[in-house]
C-alpha cells in the first residue's frame, strides 16, 4: 500500500527592520508543521535580494523600512516572473497604506497586533488563492477610491471604459466569477453560488489575474466596480 502524499511546506520570508518582530514571527511560524521560515531581511533591498535567491512562497512585508520600503519592495517583486505572495504586515492601518499596498501587488494586509493564529491562517489562505480581505474591507476600499475628490468626470469615464474593455475579454463564466469576487466572496462561497467545484473556481480566478492584468482579488473588485457592475 502506498503512503499518503505529504502536504507541501509553504516557504516564508520575513522582511522587517525590527529584529524582535522578525524573531517573534520566526518562532511563531516555526511551530507550524506546514510552514518554514527560509529567511529574514532587515529592509526592502535585502528582502528583494533574498526573495530572488530563496524563492519563498509568501513574503511577510513591513511597510516602513530603511533603504527601500515595503511598498517599493512589493512593486519590485511583482516585476519578476512568478512572484511570491506578499502579505503586508504593519502597525499602520491608515486607508492610504492599504490602498497603496494592494496597488503595489500585495495579496493581503494585516496589522502586527493581529492574533498569531490569524497570521498563520492568512498565509495559508493566500497560498490557496483565498481572499485576504473581508467583504467589508473590500467595500471600504472601493468606496474610498470611488470618492476620491480629485478624480474628474472625464477620468471616471476613462476608468469605466478601460474596465469595461478588460471585462469584455472574459467568458461568461469568468465574468460570473469576477462579479462574485467583486462582492468579496471566498472561493468556497463562489463555488456554492455558481454550482462549481472549488478547484474550478481557483482556475477561473487565476485566469482573471491574467486577463484583467491584476495581481490580487481586490483589484478584480475595483475593476468590476469601475465598470459599474457592483
UniProtKB/TrEMBL annotation:
UniProt-recorded Gene Ontology molecular function terms: DNA binding
A Pfam family assignment: GerE
Keyword Phosphoprotein: yes
Gene Ontology biological process terms in this record: phosphorelay signal transduction system; regulation of DNA-templated transcription
Record-annotated HTH luxR-type domain positions: 163-228
Assigned keywords, A-Z: DNA-binding, Phosphoprotein, Transcription, Transcription regulation
Residues bearing the modification 4-aspartylphosphate: 62
Domain Response regulatory: 11-127
Keyword rRNA processing among record annotations: no
UniProt-listed SUPFAM superfamilies: C-terminal effector domain of the bipartite response regulators (SSF46894), CheY-like (SSF52172)
Full protein name: DNA-binding NarL/FixJ family response regulator
Amino acid at each position: 500500500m502506498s503512503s499518503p502524499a505529504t502536504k507541501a511546506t509553504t516557504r516564508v520570508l520575513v522582511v522587517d527592520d525590527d529584529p524582535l518582530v522578525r524573531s517573534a514571527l520566526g518562532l511563531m511560524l516555526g511551530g507550524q508543521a506546514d510552514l518554514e521560515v527560509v529567511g529574514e531581511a532587515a529592509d526592502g533591498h535585502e528582502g528583494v535580494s533574498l526573495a530572488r535567491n530563496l524563492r519563498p512562497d509568501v513574503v511577510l512585508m513591513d511597510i516602513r523600512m530603511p533603504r527601500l520600503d515595503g511598498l517599493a519592495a512589493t512593486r519590485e517583486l511583482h516585476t519578476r516572473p512568478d512572484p511570491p505572495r506578499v502579505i503586508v504586515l504593519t502597525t499602520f492601518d491608515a486607508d492610504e497604506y492599504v490602498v497603496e499596498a494592494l496597488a503595489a501587488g500585495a495579496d493581503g494586509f494585516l496589522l502586527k497586533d493581529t492574533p498569531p493564529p490569524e497570521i498563520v491562517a492568512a498565509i495559508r489562505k493566500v497560498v490557496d488563492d483565498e481572499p485576504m480581505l473581508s467583504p467589508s474591507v473590500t467595500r471600504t476600499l472601493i468606496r474610498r477610491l470611488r470618492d476620491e475628490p480629485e478624480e474628474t468626470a472625464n477620468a471616471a469615464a476613462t476608468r469605466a471604459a478601460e474596465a469595461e474593455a478588460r471585462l469584455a475579454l472574459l467568458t461568461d463564466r469568468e465574468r460570473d466569477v469576477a462579479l462574485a469576487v467583486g462582492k468579496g466572496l471566498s472561493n468556497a462561497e463562489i463555488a456554492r453560488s455558481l454550482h462549481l467545484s472549488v478547484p474550478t473556481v481557483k482556475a477561473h480566478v487565476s485566469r482573471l489575474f491574467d486577463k484583467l492584468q491584476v495581481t490580487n482579488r481586490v483589484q478584480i473588485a475595483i475593476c468590476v466596480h469601475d465598470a459599474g457592475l457592483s
